[in-house]
Amino acid sequence: MEQVEQKVATMPRIGEKAPEFKAVTTQGEINFPSDYTGSWVILFSHPADFTPVCTSEFMTFASMEKQFNDANCKLVGLSVDGLYSHIAWLRTIREKIEYKGMKNIEVKFPLIEDITMEVAKKYGMMMPGESNTKAVRAVFVIDPKGIIRTIIYYPLSLGRNFDELYRVVLALQAADEFGIATPADWRPGDDVIVPTAGSCGVAKERMENKDEMHCYDWFFCTKKLDKDTVLKKILKK
Ligand code: BEZ
Predict the structure, then answer these.
(1) Within this chain, do residues 123 and 221 fall inside the same structural domain, yes or no?
(2) Does the chain have fewer CB atoms within 10 Å around its N or its C terminus?
(3) How do beta strands 137-142 and 111-113 pair?
(4) Residues annotated catalytic, as ranges
(5) Mean pLDDT over all residues of the chain?
(6) Which residue among 46, 49, 53 has the greatest number of ligand 1 atoms within 8 angstroms of its CB, and so is best to mutate?
């Protein structure tokens, strides 16, 4: 039988080391992820410079950059456009675009030029069913050790929710700092999920210990974790 060689696109996965690359950006050369060791970093792609959804996203993300930096999280953008296109687009945003109360927005985080699509392909940002020439809106949240902790993809037509990305960064850090998990729609100050008890005895004890925890059943216990405690831990760095 004839063997048909199929080229399988690689996609990094949650829990794996972020693939390494060296790139030219609007802020100079970067070595990724090693330049970001010790910080959280969001690596995200956008389809193209000088397009409206991307412009609204960059203005929003840039206006929230300090908020992310205060949570020890840096931002790095990427598209398959060239450096001069990036520079011209970001200058246009700063000098001309006023949108939803945002104006004179300066994008200070690096924007990678990837005309060869090398990085976009390495990170599974090219999805031919959506476009052969533009990266989709991919988001990789990478921890201070360079491990991929969350991946989110959006199609070309759908602008991202940056409050959600901030929530993701806080929730991942809260999980690490406090050894908990976060339930649906969690925000700092909401109850958190404690790990499932390993034995019936522990579970029973937990269910009786109502002061500290609330158990809905043996496998589902929550406890209070106040907003100040969470934010003090995360925003102190
Ligand atoms: C946009 O950012 O507006 C956009 C980019 C590529 C395709 C469709 C929309």
Answers:
(1) no
(2) N
(3) unpaired
(4) 54
(5) 93
(6) 53
Atom of ligand 1 nearest to the CA of 57: 2
**How confident is residue 212, by pLDDT bands cut at 50, 70 and 90?**
confident
- Give the type of residue at 91: R
Residue ending a domain, among 161, 194, 211, is 161
CA 136 to chain centre: 14
52 has which bridge partners? Answer: none
Which residue has 């907003």 as its token pair? 227
| Shared-domain flag, residues 102 and 215 | no
87 within ligand 1 shell (Cβ under 6 A)? no
Q: Is the CB of 156 under 6 A from ligand 1?
A: yes
CB atoms within 10 A of CB 169: 22
Please indicate, yes or no, if residue 107 is contained in any of the structural domains.
Answer: yes
Count how many domains the chain has. 2
Domain that holds residue 227: 179-234
* Residue 89 CA, ligand 1 centroid: distance in Å: 14
- d(CA 157, CA 57) in angstroms, rounded, equals 12
Residue 102 pLDDT > 60, yes or no?
A: yes
**Least confident segment among 4-18, 22-36, 83-97, 122-136:** 4-18
